């Protein structure tokens, strides 16, 4: 049943304003608008610091008018008005055209000396002076009421000056004060709004009422109002999110899965007997957790996180063998063709000829020819192929399984929830294991993967050689680049191989999710041309230090056959140096590869650099990684690169990454329902709130998994969840 928050905005704020709110801020209902919380608060009595305003940025500030003038234009008809505003120390210029009333003291809302108000526009630099381009303004006395007189009403004057005024994320045609007026109209229509939170949760968490929180965050009387309102609404967000995730887990647990237990002398026992090494303690522990899940009658949903080269794929393969013993099939979903092909080769090699012949590992990618796809499809649908490895091609309707018992998703951050579910629905409640080599801090795991159990592999297998990482700061030492190529030549001279990683293929083609040169602003390095595979390959073939070296390229734009030919040649030692994009970020395993040079390292994230570095030092020989960067000293970009060079501990880097990245970057692309609706909750700081909300959500769902006795909560979840989450719950 639709409530006040579901009302369309055109019936509340008028059609014109509603159209602007919808088009520019994606706000369509009263609930959307009231969830557009103020970014900050200002006070009439406190002027903004003008000298701290960043250039080329849209701002809304509190300032006082120092002077205003109007003069006729000489080159053309019309007039120009210049207004100087101040924070008491610095000044800022405002320029208007053909608005003579601006400087007319007799006009009711003129910008005359002494008046204060909100001023909005983009900060520009003109003839050495800061100015607001195309400014908009709202005086504090525009409502026609003068402020209380300090002599006759000192208390009223102080309250007028100290009342927090909301500043909203705005646009050029929708300044903050216009949004404020729209919010006033929305607030007028929610009197008596029901609270979606269970009463017991509100009492335990000491929350204020939902309607009161909305009113106080938008219209606080003092700072304490919005502080308490944010606390309540932040908990609301955490609780709704955790309820969605735990409800999803509960829905999955309702399905009956086929227990998959290994038998004595079966595939798994034969495989373990062939292994030439001992499993690490972590591998044994995680293996036991997965085995217990597989033996149960409810489908497993587990996240396996672990260090680069910690042996996650081996753990997953052992689970596939357990599934195969009951006649079940396993599907390993990989994000790229290179990684899928690498996985298949590794699985075939480690299984040995006898087990490989019995299990018939089969590859499915979009680059395969139609005859190859048909042969693979036939093996899969008949159940001959008990281990299937593929890319997104596995999700196509043409891929059907005889008995899909286990879905393994490698590098889960490359896939959305819906893609995982699409593959799962090809079986009858199959078990699911999602893997990541990017360690995930606990708060992120609870927020992004709260519907999954979590297993962790921290220790590396014995015999892994150390990797030394150095930063090559070209902004400070521009002549160091030839030394990088000399170092590569020295490694090749010893019979070793390596990689040069570029952020782009050609001048107009990039690959992967690259960061801007500096997440906090373009900075000087934005003018440095990006390193590309095409240009770097040509340059390296002319470098004296690499004379005679066999150098080839590998990118995602190449055909499947071309990529496979290059990777096979590299694995066989027929290529010395591979110039590549992030297509080699995960899964590529060449024991003789000992060095990596990452160009424009500032354009990659912390986890990406850690993943890339994990491609070397995998065969017992020491690894070397040089992070070549144009990042300037003191920039967040250089901080990221330096953080990677400081440690090879992926879990420490995950925490550093969490602290360095902005909130939107932490949550990333759509992995789990509802996260896109977070306004106040921050996984970087609100771990305690998330944990308490999770406990409260679990208690609420324990006796009412469908929320039949909590219709208001169910409606709030539907309102706050994204389409992917709603579709998941509907389908199941």
List keywords for this structure.
disordered C terminus, 732 residues, 6-stranded parallel sheet, 7-stranded parallel sheet, alpha/beta
Q: What do these coordinates show?
A:
The chain is an alpha/beta fold and 732 residues long. The protein is 38% helix and 18% strand. The chain has a seven-stranded parallel β-sheet with strand order 10-11-9-12-13-8-14, with helices on both faces. A six-stranded parallel β-sheet has the order 15-22-21-16-20-19, sandwiched between helices. Strand 19, helix 18 (560-571) and strand 20 form a beta-alpha-beta unit. It is globular.
In short:
This protein has 732 residues and is α/β, with parallel strands linked by helices. It has 25 helices and 22 strands.
Question: Secondary structure elements and their pairing?
Answer:
Layout: H1 10-13, H2 15-25, H3 30-34, E1 40-43, E2 58-72, E3 79-86, E4 91-97, E5 116-126, E6 129-139, H4 154-162, E7 164-167, H5 176-187, H6 199-205, H7 210-218, H8 223-253, H9 267-274, H10 281-295, E8 301-306, H11 312-324, E9 329-333, H12 337-359, E10 362-364, H13 370-381, E11 387-390, E12 404-409, H14 417-424, E13 431-436, H15 442-448, E14 453-457, E15 467-473, H16 481-493, E16 497-501, E17 504-506, E18 509-510, H17 533-540, E19 551-554, H18 560-571, E20 577-580, E21 593-598, H19 606-613, E22 623-629, H20 636-646, H21 650-660, H22 663-667, H23 687-702, H24 711-720, H25 723-731
Parallel strand pairs: 4-6, 8-13, 8-14, 9-11, 9-12, 10-11, 12-13, 15-22, 16-20, 16-21, 19-20, 21-22
Antiparallel strand pairs: 1-7, 2-3, 2-5, 3-4, 5-6, 17-18
Helix pairs in contact: 7-8, 8-23, 8-24, 9-11, 10-11, 15-23, 19-20, 20-21
């Amino acid at each position: 049943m639709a409530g006040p928050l579901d009302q369309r905005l055109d019936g509340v704020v008028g059609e014109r304003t509603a159209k602007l709110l919808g088009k520019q801020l994606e706000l369509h209902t009263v609930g959307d608008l009231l969830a557009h919380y103020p970014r900050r608060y200002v006070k009439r009595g406190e002027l903004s610091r003008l000298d701290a305003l960043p250039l080329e940025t849209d701002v809304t500030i509190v300032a006082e008018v120092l002077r205003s003038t109007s003069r006729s234009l000489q080159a053309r008809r019309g007039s120009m008005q210049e207004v100087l505003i101040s924070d008491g120390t610095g000044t800022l210029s405002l320029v208007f055209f053909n608005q003579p009333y601006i400087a007319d003291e007799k006009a009711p809302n003129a910008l005359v000396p002494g008046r204060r108000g909100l001023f909005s526009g983009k900060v520009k630099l003109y003839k050495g002076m800061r100015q607001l381009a195309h400014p908009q303004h709202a005086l504090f006395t525009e409502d026609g009421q003068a402020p209380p007189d300090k002599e006759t009403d000192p208390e009223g004057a102080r309250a007028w000056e100290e009342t927090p005024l909301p500043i909203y994320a705005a646009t050029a045609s929708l300044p903050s004060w216009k949004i404020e007026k729209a919010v006033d109209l929305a607030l007028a229509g929610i009197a008596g709004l029901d609270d979606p939170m269970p009463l017991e949760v509100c009492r335990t968490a000491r929350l204020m009422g939902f309607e009161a929180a909305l009113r106080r965050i938008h219209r606080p009387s003092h700072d304490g109002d919005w502080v308490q309102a944010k606390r309540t609404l932040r908990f609301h967000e955490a609780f709704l999110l955790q309820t969605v995730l735990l409800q999803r887990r509960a829905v999955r647990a309702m399905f009956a899965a086929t227990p998959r237990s290994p038998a004595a002398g079966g595939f798994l026992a034969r495989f373990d007997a062939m292994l030439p090494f001992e499993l690490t303690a972590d591998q044994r522990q995680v293996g036991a957790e997965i085995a217990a899940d597989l033996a149960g009658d409810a489908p497993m949903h587990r996240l396996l996180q672990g260090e680069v080269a910690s042996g996650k794929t081996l753990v997953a393969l052992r689970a596939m063998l357990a599934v195969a013993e009951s006649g079940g099939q396993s599907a390993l979903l990989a994000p790229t063709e290179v990684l899928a092909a690498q996985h298949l080769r590794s699985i075939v090699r480690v299984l040995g000829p006898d087990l490989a012949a019995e299990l018939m590992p089969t590859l499915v990618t979009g680059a395969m020819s139609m005859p190859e796809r048909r042969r693979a499809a036939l093996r899969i649908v008949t159940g001959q192929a008990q281990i299937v490895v593929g890319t997104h091609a596995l999700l196509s309707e043409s891929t059907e399984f005889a008995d899909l018992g286990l879905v393994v998703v490698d590098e889960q951050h490359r896939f959305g929830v819906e893609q995982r579910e699409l593959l799962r629905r090809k079986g009858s409640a199959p078990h699911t294991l999602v893997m990541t080599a990017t360690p995930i801090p606990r708060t992120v795991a609870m927020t992004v993967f709260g519907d999954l159990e979590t297993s962790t592999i921290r220790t590396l297998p014995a015999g892994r050689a150390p990797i030394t990482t150095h930063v090559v700061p070209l902004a400070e030492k521009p002549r160091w680049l030839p030394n990088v190529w000399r170092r590569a030549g020295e490694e090749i001279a010893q019979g070793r191989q390596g990689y040069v990683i570029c952020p782009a293929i050609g001048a107009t083609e990039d690959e992967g999710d690259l960061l801007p040169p500096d997440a906090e602003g373009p900075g000087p390095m934005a003018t440095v041309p990006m390193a590309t595979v095409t240009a770097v390959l040509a340059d390296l073939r002319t470098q004296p230090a690499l004379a005679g070296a066999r150098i080839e390229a590998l990118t995602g734009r190449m055909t499947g056959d071309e990529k496979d030919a290059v990777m096979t040649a590299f694995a066989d030692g027929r290529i010395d140096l591979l110039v590549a994009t992030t297509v080699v970020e995960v899964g590529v395993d060449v024991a003789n590869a000992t060095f990596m040079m990452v160009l424009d390292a500032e354009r990659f994230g912390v986890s990406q650099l850690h993943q890339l570095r994990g491609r070397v030092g995998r065969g017992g020989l020491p690894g070397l990684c040089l992070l070549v960067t144009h990042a300037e000293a003191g920039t967040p970009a250089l901080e990221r690169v330096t953080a990677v060079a400081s440690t090879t501990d992926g879990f420490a880097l995950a925490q550093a990454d969490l602290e360095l990245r902005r909130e939107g970057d932490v949550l990333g692309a759509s992995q789990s329902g509802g996260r896109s609706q977070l306004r106040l909750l921050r996984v970087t700081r609100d771990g305690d709130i998330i944990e308490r909300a999770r406990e409260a959500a679990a208690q609420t769902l324990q006796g009412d998994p469908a929320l039949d006795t909590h219709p208001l909560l169910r409606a709030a979840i539907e309102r706050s969840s994204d389409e992917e989450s709603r579709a998941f719950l509907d389908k199941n």
